[in-house]
């Protein structure tokens, strides 16, 4: 039994590796054959989002296959975030990042629309591609029904879920602004650690996605069934955080470090029935220092 589970885990890891290699090959091919800056930007953003979403789909399978130890999914998320950080340099693959650059006047409106469109196409292609992979039935955990059912990741009230996703997005983007001056090889590890921590803190509440196109790819069926709820939580919340970020002059990085130091206390309190309220209050500490 253990051997079979290990075999299935290796298959899922192989699928992730295959997606990364395929995306990398397509990126190099387009870079050599396409000389238009606009087309290159569009393709790079599409492929980056495609890789991110495909790997996240297979990550869900891998988490189900792994041991019950909570450190297992966090370890996988950390190393997968490192892979994305190393291979997707220069791409945003998140509409919130595009909106942030637009609000900071670092990107023209036309380019912003182009990137968001590329991201949406990448997310849609990822669902189609993973459905095709799962239809092949390489392992018993690969079946097309995975992509056709809604597994609701929201386990708290809608207003609290909205705040959790908004604050996760705010913390991620504001902290990454503080990391810009750090050398790339160190910044990638800090980014992976930050993503892992946010998933650790908010994953049991909303999934801690803080990326609208990734949420759309992962939970498309849920968007169809409860569109307004999911739009508010996974699109409006993170996007609002990105738009208000440039207008704030807060030392979020310092508050985030305080939050990390008290992480054990927050993890214990998140197991209570008031987890959503406690998490929101703790995130207010990170953002506003209150």
UniProtKB/TrEMBL annotation:
Homodimer; disulfide-linked. Homotetramer. Can also form homomultimer. Keywords: Cell membrane, Cytoplasmic vesicle, Disulfide bond, Endoplasmic reticulum, Membrane, Transmembrane, Transmembrane helix, Transport. It comes from Monodelphis domestica. It is a multi-pass membrane protein. GO terms for cellular component: cytoplasmic vesicle membrane; endoplasmic reticulum membrane; plasma membrane. The chain crosses the membrane at residues 12-30, 75-92, 113-134, 154-172, 192-214, 226-245. SUPFAM superfamilies: Aquaporin-like (SSF81338). Pfam families: MIP. It catalyses: H2O(in) = H2O(out); H2O2(out) = H2O2(in); glycerol(in) = glycerol(out). This is Aquaporin. Channel protein that facilitates the transport of water, glycerol and hydrogen peroxide across membrane of cell or organelles guaranteeing intracellular homeostasis in several organes like liver, kidney and brain. In situation of stress, participates in endoplasmic reticulum (ER) homeostasis by regulating redox homeostasis through the transport of hydrogen peroxide across the endoplasmic reticulum membrane thereby regulating the oxidative stress through the NADPH oxidase 2 pathway. Its main location: membrane. The gene is AQP11. One of its GO terms (molecular function) is channel activity. InterPro entries: AQP11/12_channel, Aquaporin-like, Aquaporin_11, Aquaporin_11/12, MIP. Belongs to the MIP/aquaporin (TC 1.A.8) family. AQP11/AQP12 subfamily. It is found in: Cell membrane; Cytoplasmic vesicle membrane; Endoplasmic reticulum membrane.
């Amino acid at each position: 039994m253990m051997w079979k589970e290990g075999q299935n885990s290796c298959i899922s890891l192989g699928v992730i590796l295959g997606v990364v290699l395929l995306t990398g090959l397509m990126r190099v091919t387009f870079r050599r054959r396409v000389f238009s800056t606009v087309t290159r930007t569009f393709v790079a953003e599409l492929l980056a989002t495609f890789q991110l979403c495909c790997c996240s789909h297979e990550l869900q399978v891998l988490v189900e296959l792994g041991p019950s130890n909570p450190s297992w999914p966090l370890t996988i998320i950390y190393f997968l975030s490192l892979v994305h950080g190393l291979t997707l340099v220069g791409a945003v693959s998140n509409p919130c990042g595009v909106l942030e650059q637009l609000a900071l006047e670092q990107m023209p409106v036309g380019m912003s629309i182009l990137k968001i469109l590329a991201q949406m196409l990448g997310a849609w292609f990822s669902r189609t591609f993973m459905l095709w992979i799962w239809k092949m039935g390489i392992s018993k955990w690969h079946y097309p029904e995975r992509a056709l059912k809604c597994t609701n990741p929201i386990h708290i009230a809608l207003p609290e879920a909205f705040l959790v996703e908004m604050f996760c997005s705010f913390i991620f983007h504001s902290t990454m602004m503080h990391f810009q001056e750090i050398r790339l090889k160190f910044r990638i590890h800090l980014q992976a650690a930050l993503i892992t921590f946010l998933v650790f803190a908010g994953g049991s509440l909303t999934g801690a996605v803080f990326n609208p196109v990734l949420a759309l790819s992962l939970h498309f069926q849920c968007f169809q069934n409860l569109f307004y709820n999911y739009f508010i939580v996974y699109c409006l919340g993170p996007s609002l955080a990105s738009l208000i970020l440039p207008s704030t002059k807060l030392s979020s990085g310092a508050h985030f470090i305080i939050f990390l130091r008290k992480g054990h206390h927050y993890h214990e309190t998140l197991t209570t029935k008031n987890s959503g309220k406690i998490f929101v209050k703790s995130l207010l500490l990170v953002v506003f220092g209150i």
